[in-house]
Automatic annotation (TrEMBL), chains A, B:
Domain 2Fe-2S ferredoxin-type: 4-95
SUPFAM superfamilies: 2Fe-2S ferredoxin-like
Regions annotated as coiled coil: none
InterPro entries (alphabetical): 2Fe-2S_ferredoxin-like_sf, 2Fe-2S_ferredoxin-type, Beta-grasp_dom_sf, Corrinoid_activation_enz, Raco-like_middle, Raco-like_middle_sf, RACo_C, RACo_linker
Protein name as annotated: Na(+)-translocating NADH-quinone reductase subunit F
Gene3D superfamilies linked to this entry: 3.10.20.30, 3.10.20.880, Domain of unknown function (DUF4445)
Organism of this sequence: Clostridium ragsdalei P11
GO MF, one example: iron-sulfur cluster binding
CDD domains assigned to the protein according to its UniProt record, in alphabetical order: fer2 (cd00207)
PANTHER family: IRON-SULFUR CLUSTER PROTEIN (PTHR42895:SF1), IRON-SULFUR CLUSTER-BINDING PROTEIN-RELATED (PTHR42895)
Length: 617, 617
């Protein structure tokens, strides 16, 4: 059998191989850094190379993956190409070290450097004359790869496995490393099998992002309702439960951990992966969720001066939290800023990089509490505005969550138009529709500056006249009929009451006052703000024009609004994929100054002012 | 009431106090570093101070503690001295930071800096405007005490206790710190309650030293037999048990841990202390005991090339090993050098400081294996000589352990004289007596160069003649009668057989060959050795003159022998009291070169030569 030379052009390497050897075998033998995602089965079409000095006929499998243009250029699959003559090859594949996470508004570039490293080494066999211990021989090889592994430690449980695994694997092993500690040993080369999950734990919903820590790709997204809802709908009621029940914290923690384990199962199932390959979990959430996740009492968050137990990153073994991933796995919890501005807000800042921006930006994440951050690289201030549940459709007469049957958007033209989630008969209105309705009525002058729903006699705007019959009487005051009983799913009227308007005024007044106070704390004018980052589900659904019309967001900023979706979750993913980003979260948490709105002497005035509407008369 | 000024001269501090205030109150108010061991009750007499500018009359209590000379010098007790005028005081007490451990031969000075630190801090209360988390406020105070606490971490279980303990203790707490981690939080100031236990785990016996980590004092010593003896008397048989039984390692580990817990109980009981105040444990032992203690398989120590799993220090949580001390406690395991030269030998080197010595020293720790170390600060070589159990009285016809009824020393004058442990009728001979008898017979020419027990006809030394009747016939060859049946406890003769002599020759030949080979490896002559350090129980009991006569130790070194007792245990204590010493043990383990005797081509020749005796004809 003849031998032929394969030349790898860019790598400046030559290898002599027997005839019939595939290029995959040649690449592997030469130890070149090149991926075969399907293991060389010819089923993924990813191992594209270019043959520079020959025209080879494409195989049937290649024809399935390669386009005409590629075939003309000499592109082939390494696993399908056999060597029957001297050949010169260019490796086209680029290692995916830089990865972009696309948000709805911005692209964020960073280098993948996950929280957990895997290092494959071929350890020397023990020898009689050198008498080096198993750990010492392993460390020597690790140090050859990275000198700062010199002082790396191994914990006792891994150490117990080391001698046997080392010998069973013929001394070819992969060390799983976190920081200065070898947290696991695997037989053979498993460097590419490394998954992680970024969690965003909200009071109401939990989202899990399953990530490939080697490629940086998002493999699956799973979400679930937070089962702690049975202990209370909001942060305050859960804290109360924790304080009043001896095992309240433990109970809420284990309830939460159960659903996290289900989300882990669900996401690996979706991606057809194994949970044993998950080594890292990142966590963001508000301070109360953060504390309950860790089993820390949220008691002192609820009482003045509302301080959290911890405001820096924390690493915990996954086994200590009973999270079912690889037994060596670690959980990385992002830091809180204050009792009511948590790790989720740190995630938003991390994702938006507003702490590195020269321009002044305003980030708002609206839920039951609205977390607001204002500033630039020079200074960041934050507050939490107690908006209450109005934006989530609660405590609104016809209110409901943004689920099937909810009116989600409303517009006023010659008549009233609305859209319903799921295109069904409407059952109620969700938060975004509430904003649209009130904004429309304010613009038509049907709701006045102080929030009063006027009677038709007092309409002054001609465009309001088509809606004079929508004004009905409810419990002695005016109400606005949105859908008559005959057109609803349940046969009851859907309407907006004077009380509903007041609820909305309280909610938007709090947010508006928060923004005003932060603007003052920064010594700027509202017009200095260059971008408004609207994070979170509600921020993403609501119509920015309506939000500005009712004064939830200063109207002059309407053209500067960016919807960024679940930015807290994006922050969690960034921290998972990059140790630098994770470390940076500590800098963010200490940089942001927290302003307790209740302690500000001008809060009441700002709040009262914020409750008012613009005068469209 | 008048105020007076107390001047503390050396501290250059002045304090104004009301008349009648005691100096103890003044010292405490001024926050000076001065101990009141009995709490100022006037019952210990330790709070001596000197009054420089007044002659005060001594109180009755003072007269109990102070000598005439002290009274003349103006020495008083701070707790007894009340201020009725301006007064200048010199604090005589020196903080006990430097402590001497006296060994039988040498004094070793070091600075107390235990493996666990306790730091008392008065944490700021939380405030609304600063919103600092509990951990952050604690860290701020710790950093004031030591700036490198900046990046200190707290583990999750301690963090869970922090908010409640902080508030229950009115924010006055003591942080228990190991390295870069807060491992415990205690209410109030507990800085002085800090105990540790230094263990020396031998194949046969285990010793526990209970130490006060604040003062450096040894409070109690407890010891027990190693209960693993039921799985095998020596290292090889225990390793075999571990390899042949599925749960062999776990079983031997838990058996060992049980007795360690008993020794912990016993030592705190003796010292009337609480085991909850024990925060640190240090461990030395041979490599097999080290591995079994940690639950590491000793399998690969038993097979060529005999490498250990680990040869550096290791820290383990006490709870991970189920050792019943303070739940925050840590176990610090000293490093091994090789499969047959373990952490106990590192302890001997640490205690003797031979690695820092300009002079060449030889350390020998004789047991079933004799660990030998030779060298100086320039170079250290070590080996393990398989002496077998002869020195421990085993496999000797009349042999027994050094217990009650054992003849421990023998001398030959006009007749044979011996001493018996416990002054009872003798039952057998222990190792030290074996040495004395053989040495005596060699000097008398009754045992010849090759170890043969001569018949009376062949005696040439007139001093041998009184013992001609002691030569008896046993199993067809000569034997030496030590005690006739009528004088023994059991009515059987106690004698030395030709086989016994051969056993001793094998044992001393191995040690002697080990020494010779190390001398060659160091490229020195035996006479270059300036000191012989004999460590371990056997080394302490045996007569150095006998040991040199039979050639166990080169006779030219007889005047250089130092008996240092349990130097391995001393090393364990040093590491417990001083983090520097503990860290230094890693340098020792990597500095010492291990020589595998079986792999040396001149070993057989040296061994054969070492089996011979000197010719006293």
């Amino acid at each position: 059998m003849n031998n032929y030379t394969v030349t790898f052009k860019h790598e400046n390497r030559k290898i002599s191989v027997c005839e019939g050897t595939t290029l995959k075998e040649a690449i592997t033998a030469e130890g070149l850094d090149f991926d075969f995602p399907c293991g060389g089965m010819g089923t993924c079409g990813k191992c594209r190379i270019k043959i520079l000095d020959k025209n080879l006929k494409a195989t049937e499998k290649e024809l399935k993956f390669l386009e005409g243009k590629e075939l003309k250029e000499g592109i082939h699959l390494a696993c399908e190409t056999k060597v029957y003559s001297d050949i010169t090859v260019q490796l086209n594949q680029k290692k995916n070290e830089v990865y972009n996470i696309l948000q709805s508004s911005t692209e964020r570039t960073f280098t993948i450097k996950p929280l957990i490293e895997k290092v494959y080494v071929e350890v020397d066999l023990p020898s009689l004359d050198k008498q080096k211990s198993d750990l010492k021989r392993l460390k020597e090889k690790l140090m050859q790869k990275k000198p700062n592994y010199k002082n790396i430690k191994m914990n006792i449980s891994v150490l117990r496995e080391l001698p046997v695994k080392l010998r069973e694997a013929n001394h070819h092993i992969t060390a799983v490393i976190h920081g200065n500690e070898i947290i696991g040993i695997e037989m053979g080369n498993t460097e590419k099998s490394m998954l992680g999950i970024a969690f965003d734990i909200g009071t109401t919903t939990i989202v899990a992002y399953l990530m490939d820590l080697y490629t940086g790709k998002k493999l699956a997204v799973s979400s679930a309702m937070n089962p702690q809802i049975k202990f209370g709908a909001d942060v305050i009621s859960r804290t109360t439960f924790a304080n009043q029940n001896e095992n309240g914290v433990k109970l809420m923690q284990s309830t939460l951990l159960d659903v996290l384990n289900k989300l882990i199962e669900d996401s690996v199932h979706k991606a057809t992966m194994l949970k044993e390959n998950i080594y890292a979990i990142t966590i963001v959430g508000n301070t109360c969720m953060h504390h309950l996740f860790l089993g820390l009492t949220p008691k002192y968050i609820a009482y003045i001066p509302y301080v959290p137990v911890i405001s820096e990153t924390l690493e915990v073994k996954s086994s200590d939290l009973n999270l079912h991933i690889n037994p060596s796995g670690k959980v990385f919890v992002l830091p809180n800023i204050a009792g009511f501005v948590g790790a989720d807000t740190v995630g938003v800042i991390l994702a938006s990089e507003m702490d590195k921006s020269k321009d002044i930006k305003l980030a708002i994440d609206i839920g039951t509490n609205g977390e607001i951050v204002l500033g630039s690289s020079k200074k960041l201030v934050s507050c939490s505005a107690a908006a209450g549940p109005a934006f989530e459709g609660a405590q609104i007469s016809s209110g409901m969550r943004g689920a099937k049957g909810a009116i989600d958007h409303v517009s006023f033209g010659e008549s009233l138009n609305y859209t319903v989630i799921g295109n069904e008969k409407p059952e109620g209105i969700c938060g975004s529709a509430l904003l649209d309705i009130v904004a429309g009525l304010v613009r038509l002058g049907i709701i006045n500056k102080r929030g009063k729903l006027l009677s038709p006699d007092n309409f002054t705007n001609p465009n309001a006249l088509p809606f004079r019959n929508n004004i009905v009487t409810y419990e002695g005051t005016n109400a606005f009929l949105i859908v008559p009983p005959s057109e609803t799913a349940h046969g009851r009227a859907i309407m907006l009451t004077q009380n509903d308007i007041t609820s909305l005024q309280l909610a938007k007044g709090a947010i508006s006052a928060g923004i005003s106070i932060l603007v003052k704390k920064c010594n700027i004018n509202t017009s200095d703000i260059k971008e408004v980052i609207l994070a979170g589900a509600f921020g993403n659904y609501m119509d920015p024009h309506s939000a500005c019309t009712i004064g939830l967001i200063p109207p002059e900023l309407e053209n500067k609004i960016q919807l960024v979706g679940n930015a807290a979750g994006t922050g969690s993913m960034l921290a998972l994929l990059s140790n630098d980003e994770y470390e940076h979260s500590n800098a963010i948490a200490s940089k942001v100054t927290y302003i307790e709105l209740g302690a500000q002497k001008d809060f009441n005035r700002e709040f009262a002012h914020g409750m008012q509407f613009q005068d469209y008369k």
